[in-house]
Design a protein that fits this description.
Largest sheet: 5 strands, mixed
CATH architecture of the largest domain: 3-Layer(aba) Sandwich
Strand content: 15-25%
Structural class: alpha/beta
Distance between the termini: 31 Å
CATH superfamily of the largest domain: Diphthamide synthesis DPH1/DPH2 domain 3
Radius of gyration: 21 Å
Order of helices and strands: EHEHEHEEEHEHEHEHEEHEHEHEHEHH
Low-confidence stretches: none
CATH topology of the largest domain: Rossmann fold
Length: 328
Amino acid sequence: MYKFEEEKLIENINEKQPKRILLQLPEGLKKEGLRISELITSKTKSEVIISGEPLWGACDVAINEAKSLGCDMIIIYGHAPFTTVDFPVLYLEARYEKDISNLLEKSYDSLKDFKKIAIATSVQHIHQVPKVKEFFESKGINVTVPQAKGHAFYDGQVLGCEYNSFKLIAKDVDAVFIIANKFHSLGVAMSISKPVILLDPFNEKISNMEDFKKDIIKQRATAIETTREANKIGIIIGTKIGQKFGSFDHIKEKLKKMEKQFALISMSEITEDKLINLYDIDAFVELACPRIAIDAAGLFSKPILTAREFAVLTGELTWEDLLEKGFL
């Protein structure tokens, strides 16, 4: 289903001639690790180490891991360039090649009542945007493709953490159609107050994110109110290069004014196993990937807020601001 661009891969490696490569693959593509590793070692003079760590997104560039292993190049599959780093990185997008024409026909029933829609996809489907646009326009629907903003590399690309391009066009459309997965579509739904319809080509499902969004909003309201009553708060500072959201100095000063006890905590991966050892802390504010607090809340025994949610406690934002302008 996916295009691995073997020729580009080998050509790039032979041009740059790295001695050792760190190969980063998303969980769904790790099964290709051995094949790709053997291909590289048979066609080049480079040694390959497959990273066994999770690859959560284009932001998750494992530079420290690469340096500690003596690697002089990183290859990341399944993502487009996200942020500038001072290390050689080759991004290979793993485009999805299966025809989705029949799924577009099925999805039309969920969108036929909207006059204006925006369409966007994850990087695996970005080459299909023109076809999707043409399909819906042939049905008489006005289609907008959001321009690339912030960390997005392509027009019409949806990321997991940043939705400025959708916020800029939200007032001009009736709904947003996403070709990706629940993670990407929920992010859009939590960022704008318009219906979001998901087409998941891998699972061949079409879903409206509204009910799921409502459940998440209830969960976030509970987390904010529980944190409001907390006396000891941990400020989690993410150590991954591409996962920096909010200023710990700002939050620290706000907590001082609120007369709350606090601790600064650094983490690469935020997990319950790590947080449970900080048993004397009542709640956390995390400044790494905001999706950890929102999507993975059920995995944690104590509330975790994003920087935007914490701003509700300080009065910098209201709950209504989050509902109207987005949680992300």
